[in-house]
TrEMBL record, chain A:
Belongs to the acyl-CoA dehydrogenase family. This is Acyl-CoA dehydrogenase family protein. The keyword Oxidoreductase applies. The keyword Signal does not apply. The lineage of its organism: Bacteria, Bacillati, Actinomycetota, Actinomycetes, Kitasatosporales. Its cofactor is FAD. Residues 217-374 form the Acyl-CoA dehydrogenase/oxidase C-terminal domain. Residues 28-107 form the Acyl-CoA dehydrogenase/oxidase N-terminal domain. It comes from the Bacteria. Gene3D superfamilies: Acyl-CoA dehydrogenase/oxidase, N-terminal domain, Butyryl-CoA Dehydrogenase, subunit A, domain 2, Butyryl-CoA Dehydrogenase, subunit A, domain 3. InterPro entries: Acyl-CoA_Oxase/DH_mid-dom, Acyl-CoA_Oxase/DH_mid-dom_sf, AcylCo_DH-like_C, AcylCo_DH/oxidase_C, AcylCoA_DH/ox_N, AcylCoA_DH/ox_N_sf, AcylCoA_DH/oxidase_NM_dom_sf, Mycobact_Acyl-CoA_DH. Keywords: FAD, Flavoprotein, Oxidoreductase. Coiled coil: none annotated.
Automatic annotation (TrEMBL), chain B:
Keywords: FAD, Flavoprotein, Oxidoreductase. Its cofactor is FAD. Belongs to the acyl-CoA dehydrogenase family. SUPFAM superfamilies: Acyl-CoA dehydrogenase C-terminal domain-like (SSF47203), Acyl-CoA dehydrogenase NM domain-like (SSF56645). Signal peptide: none annotated. This is Acyl-CoA/acyl-ACP dehydrogenase. Residues 7-107 form the Acyl-CoA dehydrogenase/oxidase N-terminal domain. Residues 209-348 form the Acyl-CoA dehydrogenase/oxidase C-terminal domain. Gene3D superfamilies: Acyl-CoA dehydrogenase/oxidase, N-terminal domain, Butyryl-CoA Dehydrogenase, subunit A, domain 3.
Length: 393, 356
């Protein structure tokens, strides 16, 4: 088993062989991957050393102290957080070798082609078709809410390969080449004015069968790996006091005494308490994970985070009074990064409206808590034994 | 950062207390005791004292267990879950903390053993920073009346703040204790009348009262967690069983969402209560953490108890069902040691979010 001392030694060897000051960024990242120091819990030869995941921090701290470049994880979050664990679990050896290295270095950006206009909370009802033609699959359909599609080289895609069986059974999981001529990416402008997301139209897109992940018809199970990793990623950051959305409004309160009213004061204090409690709750969840007793709190954290962001940013717009009537800029842009607490109060207010929709709506999450945590009866299902082609739509 | 989990020892303590309460604190008995003339359960208190629980906060050198607020919090969770009618919070936390501030070793030792029950004669509603009523001191002889004193009916010693700035220990037989008809049937209040009672000055009242009430407010959050957790667990259990419209009532989405929301509030309360207990144990950032925990805990416990009552339907409205004991405790707790609003006001200064 690889221990902290050995990892530290390997990290120092990497730094000695490829001094960050005189090595190109990409060369350094590739060397780091090949040294097994990219994600130490991955297998040898795929950027890791089969070491405990917790030891990654040892490597990261040493590299950061040496001024080594990182792989800009926020830019490639979908690849790192969702595509990679799925490829690792379900990919063939050839797929793992082909995809994981450029995914981790950021040479190839990934996006996720899951949601559709007709399949949101009911994702398994998706209608994008994949039909087998020789060694290829031909894909037709429309996907939506795809961040990074305009910069992505690859996508993880789920499509319907058998409409004659119930919805969960007829789905297959693919890796889709975003440079295929049948892929058309259109920006999807949102209420903030910018287009963080895209619509993706798929017309006669050819995917070789070698780019299938998992068995034919097993795509729903494969997708669970992707989606579980998405929920793990949400709300995972350790924050200092006033580190989240409560920070800007608290600073505004201190710096702008002329804006204060008694009503706003009561509401601010209430939200300040709730933000601090949410911080403790997130910290408690992390402590549980660290000692290997994962509690069900994770499902709740996203619910709390969404409501708090919305209420706090709403209060801040109101606090700003006359300024709250203004907005910094409605210009249509396509940002590569999403920053919930960035820009002005108006942006924060509008962007946080998405927090209770993206990655599972709050209504669906409440069902999940009620059924899986509290053990209450499941919602009645009328679609379980019905062929997908016969479902109401 | 703060350790927000329960240690193995704390979990062992919890199950020992829970086992004891399962055997000796059945809801039906608690209900009948409330109208019995002896609302406190002295036999149960004796069993808790034999486990050493009354002395958790007292150092071993002074006859206690040398544990901390973290362990006392676990005991309070379980006592809250059972709405146990014992003076644990008032004697083993509040009176004990006041005496720790004064350094009165003899009395501390007696409280720690549980043979003597103490009560701080400050109204239960008092917030840690608020002014408190005093009696007149005349050469160690005390005159006056104090109201809203929790568990005074069962106290052997009262710690009485006087107008000369002193805190006096007064034995129960030197005062008149008159029970008040109280909202919370399991933590009843009383009026304490001192008509020339002899008192022994044990220290200065102000710092002792502040310290005692801060510990009380912080650890009350753990009791409120126990109350809320009982309300959720019992309601979920009932709604899986109870059938209307040919299906379990717990399958209706409107109710599932309410219960999931409540679960989230309780998960959050657990983190806040652990943070407060840990901050009190180690004295780090305790003022803010206690105020945050108590500002959050009070409305959650009340919400949980109110939901339990509503979702039990008609049976929840009956005297026979224990839901009302939890509602009355939760509502009284929302005033005890400062309301949520009082703690938010304290935070305005502590977190530099000043009023207009």
């Amino acid at each position: 088993m690889t221990d902290a001392a050995e990892l530290l030694g390997r990290t120092r060897e990497l730094l000695a062989a490829h001094p960050p000051g005189s090595t190109g960024r990409l060369d350094f990242l590739r060397a780091r991957f090949d040294a097994g120091l990219a994600w130490v819990h991955y297998p040898q030869g795929l950027g890791g050393l089969g070491a405990p995941r917790a030891l990654q921090a040892v490597v990261d701290a040493e590299l950061e102290a040496a001024g080594a470049p990182d792989n800009d994880p926020r830019r490639i979050g979908i690849g790192l957080g969702m595509a990679a664990p799925t490829i690792l679990k379900y990919g063939t050896e050839e797929q793992k070798r082909r995809f994981l290295r450029p995914l981790w270095t950021g040479e190839e950006v990934w996006c996720q082609l899951f949601s559709e206009p007709g399949a949101g909370s009911d994702l398994a009802a998706l209608g994008t078709r994949a039909v087998r033609e020789g060694e290829d699959w031909v894909v037709d359909g429309q996907k939506v809410w795809t961040s990074s599609a305009h910069i992505a080289r690859w996508a993880i895609l789920i499509a319907r390969t058998d409409p004659a069986v119930p919805k969960h059974a007829g789905i297959t999981y693919f890796v889709c080449d975003m440079t295929d001529p049948g892929v058309e990416v259109r920006p999807l402008r949102q209420i903030t004015g910018e287009a963080e997301f895209n619509e993706v139209f798929l017309t006669g897109v050819r995917i070789p069968d070698a780019h299938r992940l998992g068995e034919i018809g097993d795509g729903w199970r494969v997708a669970q790996t992707t989606l579980n990793n998405e929920r793990v990623a949400i709300g995972g950051m350790r924050l200092p006091r006033e580190g989240g959305m409560i920070g800007p409004v608290s600073r505004a309160w201190r710096e702008r005494p002329e804006l204060r009213t008694h009503d706003l004061h009561q509401r601010l204090l209430r939200l300040w308490v709730e933000a601090e409690v949410a911080r403790f709750t997130g910290e408690r969840l992390r402590q549980q994970l660290a000692v290997g007793q994962p509690g069900p709190e994770g499902a709740g954290m996203k619910l709390a985070f969404a409501r708090l962001n919305q209420e706090i940013s709403g209060l801040e717009v109101e606090l700003r009074g006359e300024e709250g009537l203004l907005y910094d800029d409605w210009t249509m842009r396509r940002p590569e990064l999403v920053d919930f607490t960035g820009r002005d109060a108006g942006y924060r207010y509008l962007r946080s409206k998405g927090n209770s929709i993206e990655g599972g709506t709050s209504e669906v999450l409440l069902n999940i808590v009620a059924e899986r945590v509290l053990g209450l009866p499941a919602e009645p299902r009328t679609d379980k034994d019905v062929a997908w082609k016969d479902l109401a739509r | 950062m703060t350790d927000l989990l329960y240690s193995e020892e704390e979990e062992a303590l919890r199950s020992a207390v829970r086992d004891l309460l399962t055997d000796h604190c059945a809801p039906a008995d608690v209900i009948s005791r409330t109208e019995s003339g002896t609302p406190h359960d002295r036999a149960l208190w004796k069993l808790l004292a034999e486990m050493g629980l009354a002395g958790l906060l007292v150092p071993e050198a002074q006859g206690g267990q040398g544990a901390s607020a973290r362990e006392a919090a676990v005991v309070l969770e379980e006592l809250g879950r059972a709405v146990a009618p014992v003076p644990y919070l008032t004697s083993a936390v509040v009176a004990t903390e006041a005496l720790l501030a004064c350094g009165d070793e003899e009395l501390l030792g007696r409280l720690a053993a549980g043979r003597t029950i103490g009560a701080l004669a400050v109204g239960l509603h008092s917030a840690p920073q608020a002014p408190f009523a005093t009696v007149r001191a005349d050469n160690g002889v005390l005159h006056g009346e104090l109201t809203g004193i929790a568990d005074a009916a069962v106290a052997d010693v009262l710690l009485v703040p006087a107008d000369d700035g002193g805190l006096y220990a007064v034995t129960a037989d030197a005062v008149t204790v008159t029970p008040q008809v109280s909202l919370d049937l399991t933590r009843p209040l009383a009026t304490v009348t001192l008509a020339g009672a002899a008192g022994r000055r044990v220290g200065d009242a102000a710092p002792a009262v502040r310290r005692a009430l801060r510990a009380a407010a912080g650890l009350l959050a753990s009791e409120q967690l126990g109350v809320a957790d009982w309300a959720l667990t019992e309601t979920v259990r009932y709604l899986k069983e109870r059938k209307q419209f040919n299906r379990p009532v717990g399958g209706f989405q409107a109710l599932k969402h309410r219960l999931a929301q409540l679960w989230l509030e309780i998960v959050s309360l657990r983190a806040a209560a652990r943070a407060a207990a840990d901050a009190l144990a180690f004295g780090e950032d305790a003022d803010i953490t206690v105020a945050v925990a108590q500002a959050y805990a009070a409305p959650v416990a009340v919400h949980a108890a109110e939901e339990a009552l509503q979702l039990h339907g008609g049976i929840g409205m009956t005297w026979e069902h224990p839901a009302h004991l939890y509602l009355k405790r939760a509502k009284a707790d929302s005033i005890a040691y400062g309301t949520a609003g009082a703690h938010r006001s304290a935070l305005a200064a502590l977190a530099d979010l000043q009023a207009p």
